[in-house]
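User: Structure tokens for this complex, please. No commentary.
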Amino acid sequence: MKFSLYDTTLRDGTQGEGVNFSSLDKLRIAHQLDEFGVHYIEGGWPGSNPKDIEFFNLAKNETFKTSKIAAFGSTRRAGIAVHEDPQVLTLLAADTPVVTFYGKSWLMHVTEVLRTTPDENRAMIRDTVRFCKEAGREVIYDAEHFFDGYKDEPEYALSTLAAALEGGADMLVLCETNGGCLPDEIADIVSKVRERFPDAAIGIHTHDDGGLGVANALAAIRAGATQVQGTINGYGERTGNCNLTTIIPNLQLKMGIEVVPDLTKLTELSKYVDDVANLPHFPRAPFVGSSAFSHKGGTHVNAVQKLSRSYEHIPPATVGNHQVVLVSDLSGQDNILHKANELGFKLARGAPGVKGILDAVKQRENEGYEYETADASFELLIRKILGEYTPTFDLLEYHTTHRTHGVRGFETCEATIKMDMNGQRVYTVEEGDGPVNALDQALRKALITVYPEIAQITLCDYKVRIIDSKSGSAAKTRVLIESTDGVTHWGTVGVSFNIIDASWEALVDSIDYFLNRHKSA
Amino acid sequence: MKFSLYDTTLRDGTQGEGVNFSSLDKLRIAHQLDEFGVHYIEGGWPGSNPKDIEFFNLAKNETFKTSKIAAFGSTRRAGIAVHEDPQVLTLLAADTPVVTFYGKSWLMHVTEVLRTTPDENRAMIRDTVRFCKEAGREVIYDAEHFFDGYKDEPEYALSTLAAALEGGADMLVLCETNGGCLPDEIADIVSKVRERFPDAAIGIHTHDDGGLGVANALAAIRAGATQVQGTINGYGERTGNCNLTTIIPNLQLKMGIEVVPDLTKLTELSKYVDDVANLPHFPRAPFVGSSAFSHKGGTHVNAVQKLSRSYEHIPPATVGNHQVVLVSDLSGQDNILHKANELGFKLARGAPGVKGILDAVKQRENEGYEYETADASFELLIRKILGEYTPTFDLLEYHTTHRTHGVRGFETCEATIKMDMNGQRVYTVEEGDGPVNALDQALRKALITVYPEIAQITLCDYKVRIIDSKSGSAAKTRVLIESTDGVTHWGTVGVSFNIIDASWEALVDSIDYFLNRHKSA
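Assistant:
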């Protein structure tokens, strides 16, 4: 039986805290999933909200080359004929080739949550499958809480699957809804289901509440499941669903199951979906995270340069990711050379300038700088040492004033900047929320007439740490700033005994880096 | 054999991108791990940097009730006598009861990375274990890349373990260094090792590159391993190490292996370590994340209100977490009551004032406050609401000025404070390194004549985070300050659009808390 991927990012994924898609967002993601080679895309629950109905209306007029669109719903309600249940009728009205609905497998849910009888629950499953099959749809049956139900009352749980098969279901998906099972339990129970229904197609749907969403799905697949349901980046209620961006490369690279035609698009897809959802990309995400192939310790950097598989389980390019070498106080000459060459400098071990960079980095690290996430400051430092840097402006003086009346009262913060720009004295003043914001505003005001492109820059993160935590507010402060022009991101660092100066240094580096890159482009 | 937890947050954890600890940070975390009941704490690699040596010097004078401190290193170098190897000597000089070091199990690493012979590699392992044992230490041997090595050349990999046992190693830890193996491979290989060395104690050290760090460690434990190595919140190189905050509750609640005395402290510990590292807490983290027990879908909310285990794999309180209902927020009362009573207030459910505290906390958390590490601010808030607070001073106005000549030139920062103290107008001015330090100085100057005891207060940590990271320097800022009087430590929090105001709020809370405590003592 061919293995299939079933994506529920657009339905179960949106149950996650902070995950919201418009119907157009959903359409854009559906096309990316189709391009990537996902076999089924669950678009939403038409019975639950009008946005999902709108998505299915839009999707009807679109062409998908690989993916089949599925609408999601539940069985008919208890004590009502299936053809009179509005939720079931809305599900069919979505007019999708595939219909997926869930029913109850756990007797406790039948009696305590649905408050109906064991027999009626089975009839609800059987009737709903049959009704959808008679409407000509491919029917996927999601057996909610199957594993918990099986652990409580195995025979009852199995009998609900039998009801779905009697109705004519094309696929039985065993759902680990609460996410608390262990892989061995999953393997064992899937095997039991296979013994009982040897001809049925079995799918697996897991959640990550125990941190085992992917492991549990893999265990089910080893035991014979041929479909996996999950979401991109593991979105989903509570801790999320089985993460497709993790399980796909495991299936394809580790277990030899061909699931998608081109795995090198994986990292791009993962970032795309985070961008549409407006969520930060998790740096430590397996395979696709920005740290997934990053190396910090000197011994590791030295080894991966001799032989990349010495500390990398796969070549990063296989999944469209890349190796990153971090510069830190744990690093040696190899880290720095690697990083410099990555930034486009052509330096060999022992080349002129290398010693100067090494000494400068060590000295500045000792003063409290940190270049791990401050690539842009590191690049400026190298340029300065190699004599490949021309200043864009020359700061003469800056000044901030802050006044508060009463603890929670009226407040102002003002910054003035005096600088020399191409021989011209520029003197600006601006106000802002706090001294750093005021300085940022005043600096932009000074530069924007000559460099209008700086309007593109936004500061997207600002972090402050005391370096020596022994001496409190008089200790050195390190500021890390992350900036973006909407296309790329860059990090800069500043260190001073004074938080305003440290912020200012990181701010100036950010704009300076951007302008230098523009000049050389 | 008793099961043991081995924490390497302070060593392998710091290999993670963005994870940096001062030696004092390490000491604070070590005490929390000890309180929690971790059996071994790996503090660092003394041979690699002076910061780690400093940690071991500090730790020597501290008392730990459960944890043994371990120093980490590597085998002796090839072609040198073990007692002449400076790295090994530095390792022993750390003077810890436990010494852990790694050696090579993978023949490819021996020949391509170390560039030595298979025999010499075994001798390096054997000699180093023996030398450390003769120095009277408990020796834990980390067999780096054991699984990859075994898959390539099983007999060679096993022979390196034999060398460690010949030297007298107390524990053989099988390391899945590259993080790319599957749980079934792990189970199989651990069983083979157990067959070969039935009397040896076996540990497991995994990484999360395939998203299976926890699952792989669980598979090894099922196959007989009795120690797990990992890090709090899964810090570590690339995608991180086995996440102890995930595996501990799985072991204790799902597999019935007793590992810590009180699991309800887990969420608090997880947040504490993130706070010290100044990293955001991952909301979707299993067990301890803020979304781990959150419910959004209507059917789920309805069901969990009938029966919490309908969509929760464990009761959230078991791990010190709580249920969150995203539509109608009913939760939190128990946490707040627990915390308030911990601070010495005697409040019962429904007591007068409880609702007021609950509402205030909800509102302030919504504004960006966070009381996890800000006990002192939380206590002041409760006192104010219960009417058990008398102000020590009344601030009328404050003002800071900052001037710099040239980017690295002469700079001054001045603060003035006008306040009313017992009907007396006090107006002081001081200067400092940065506006916060200047305000601190001016405030102390104003208060010290009336309250000479404030001279005992030192600020020992100061952390700043942007709350909404989308809008850069104009976003809200949260400041966390930790203070000490040399005997106890307390944390305070301030939030504002302006970093100076946020700092000021946390500063005032710190001194106010101290003075209030003195008055009531």
